[in-house]
Write a structure and sequence with these properties.
- This protein is an alpha+beta fold.
- It has a domain of about 100 residues.
- It has a 3-stranded antiparallel sheet with strand order 1-3-2, sandwiched between helices.
- Helix 4 links the parallel strand 4 and strand 5.
Length: about 180
């Protein structure tokens, strides 16, 4: 079995009940994918919401500190604590404080967009059934569900594979010892 990615250990610990929540670093799916594989909640926050101070940079424009939890509420509680401005991270912004929402009795007034590009014919039938159950529940709770299009979706992965390796080669070069020789402390 595979826990799904580079932060999979954190997801596996939450799934096993060893910890109520955990952190992970995310560049291109390292929180979201393990969360999915392990059946827990994973949140990749908005860029700049959480300080990356202390993180070894891989792809600077993509890296984020994410949160795993057993529930959306657990993950949101941790995110509310770690969010905010950090003077040691110039990309970190002082955003509005993250308030934990109450679970609404109804989704009346909410409009949920379902990108047609995310439901291709080859989508695993079990995934499709799970999505259909969630869609039915949202409709039963009063949400309006609309099909939308994100036509640039096919370019997301190729774009990632240009940006991430370019930034990683620059960010990680400081550790290779080529320019200044190896350091031993």
């Amino acid at each position: 079995r595979v826990p799904g990615g580079s932060s999979g250990g954190s997801a596996a610990l939450v799934a096993a009940g060893a910890v109520p929540a955990a952190l992970g670093s995310e560049t291109g799916g390292s929180v979201r994918q393990p969360a999915s594989f392990c059946g827990v909640v994973g949140i990749k926050p908005t860029y700049g919401r959480v300080s990356r101070y202390g993180l070894v940079a891989f792809g600077s424009s993509l890296d984020q500190i994410g949160v795993f939890g057993r529930s959306v509420h657990d993950a949101a509680r941790v995110l509310s604590v770690i969010s905010g401005r950090d003077p040691r991270d110039s990309t970190c912004e002082d955003r509005d404080s993250l308030r934990l929402p109450t679970v609404p009795e109804s989704l009346q007034g909410f409009v949920i967009g379902l990108p047609r590009e995310y439901f291709p014919p080859e989508l695993d039938p079990a995934v499709r059934r799970a999505c259909d159950r969630a869609i039915r529940l949202m409709k039963e709770l009063g949400a309006a569900v609309r099909e939308v299009s994100l036509p640039h979706t096919p370019y997301a992965v190729p774009t990632y594979y240009v940006i991430a390796p370019a930034e990683a080669s620059s960010n990680l070069a400081r550790y290779d010892g080529v320019l200044y020789g190896p350091r031993f402390n």
